[in-house]
Structure formats: structure tokens, C-alpha cells
Amino acid sequence: MKKLNLITILIIFTILTSCEDKENNNDITLNNNLILSQKIELSNDNKVVYIYTDNKILIEKNKSFTNKYEYKDNLITKIKNNFSETTYFYNENKELKTEIYISKDYKYESNYFYDNDNITIVKKKFDLLKKREDIIIINYLMVNGNIRRMTEEYNEVKTDITYTYDNKHNPYTNIKGIDKLLIPYLSQKNNVLREDIIKTKNKELMKNTYINAITYEYMYNPNNFPVYCKKITFEGKGEEKDLSKTRYIYKKE
Predict the structure, then answer these.
(1) Range 2-252: architecture per CATH
(2) CA 167 to chain centre
(3) Residues contacting 196, CB < 8 A, separation 6+
(4) Residues 142-197: tens digit of each pLDDT
(5) What residue spans define the domains of the chain?
């Protein structure tokens, strides 16, 4: 039994330490058209189930919510539930042009502007209760189908996040239209290994008041999809703040 445990540990260690960033050589082996069917948050046993037709996501649900998806051709045009509705519009290149989110209390209108590998998002935030409008500016630097860097400016606070990736399949690979939505973690080609976060207010570094790093460790199946993820967050002082574990289950469409 001790030998078995040691071998198991060595195998796991080899898998985890092989998850290095290979953004300049991120070719991935054939994925056999696997598609995500369940995502389980092991810390609270929260299970999200996905329902498809022809690799188009129709329903995403857990015990608290149900998201319903609408498509035009292979592009997602709407996501709605009992609390909110998001509508997506695209340009002639099938790139996301405008995103409108509406809930009971808020409305967001995001407009996307493309300049090669740089994407600028001008997001208008409407507080429907206080009748107030704010502007949020977000910039993405895209590298090999991933958001490599994100900056956000809002209320004199600037957030700067640098992402490091593995060279494996994102769990949401093979879901039609997801890659067009530019949603961090969902729309990327690969999986985030680390986030380095810097926040400044009026150009002064904000210390000890926010999470400044997040790391992710994965185990993969033979098709190079993650089946397990351990996420660790660190506060401004470098102290470990939170740990969560997620399991991914796939099926063949």
C-alpha cells in the first residue's frame, strides 16, 4: 500500500509540474469532440449541468439558477435567467461588437473596439435605482487565443492583471460561440495557471487590501482536458486566503 501511495503521488506531481506556460507553442492534440457536461465545486458540492444540441449550449443550471442560451447560426445572441438578461451583437467579422446586460437594479452596455491583438471595451454602468451612470474602461491584450493581460479603470482605481496559461484544452472548448464572448476563463483557448494582480488608486499602489495572486493546478484526462482544478488565492501580504477545488466531467457529442 505504501508503494502504491508513493507511485500515485509521483504521478500527480508529474502531471501538475508539467502544466507550464507554453504560449508560443500551444498546439493541442486531437480532442475527440469532448464537451463539458458537469462542473462540480467540491468545497460546497455545487453542481452545474450543461445541456446541448449540436454543440450549442441550451441550458446551464444548478440548484440556484438556470441560464438559457439563444443562438443565431453559431453565435450566442442571448443568455437569460430569472434575474438578468444579456444580449450580444456582432460585427461583420463575427466579432463581439456590443453586449447589453439588464437586471432589476443595473444595466451595462459594453462596446468593443479591435486593433490587432488589442481589444478596448467601453462599459457604461447604469444604476437604475440611483439614476447614476459610470464609465469603466477595460483593455485586453490577446496572445494565441488567450487574454494575456487585462487592465480596468473605474472610479480612480486601476486593476492590472497578467495571466499565465498551460497548453491544454479549456473545459469550454467545443461549445459553439463561447470563444466569441471574450469572457475570462470561459472563452480562452487554454487554462489559466496564474494571475498576477496589481491595483492602484490615483497611481498609488494599494497594499494589503486585495488579492494579489491566484494560482491554479490541474489534472488532465488523456484528451488534454482538465478533470480537476485546485485554485489558491493570496492576499496583499502574500498570505493564502482561499482554496477551492473543481471537478470537470465530459461527454462525447
Answers:
(1) Beta Barrel (2.40)
(2) 15
(3) 161, 162, 164, 212, 213
(4) 999 999 999 999 988 899 999 999 999 999 999 999 999 999 889 999 999 999 99
(5) 2-252
Distance (Å, whole) CA 118 – CA 160: 15
pTM, to two decimals? 0.83
Residue labelled with grid coordinates 459594453? 110
Q: Which residue has the cell 497594499?
A: 207
Question: Is 174 within 8 Å of 253 (Cβ atoms)?
Answer: yes
Question: C-alpha 232: how far from its chain's center?
Answer: 16
> Quick one: 208 exposed, middle or buried, by C-beta within 10 A (0-12, 13-18, 19+)?
exposed
How many whole angstroms separate alpha carbon 243 and alpha carbon 220?
Answer: 19
126-142 tens-digit pLDDT? 999 888 999 999 999 99
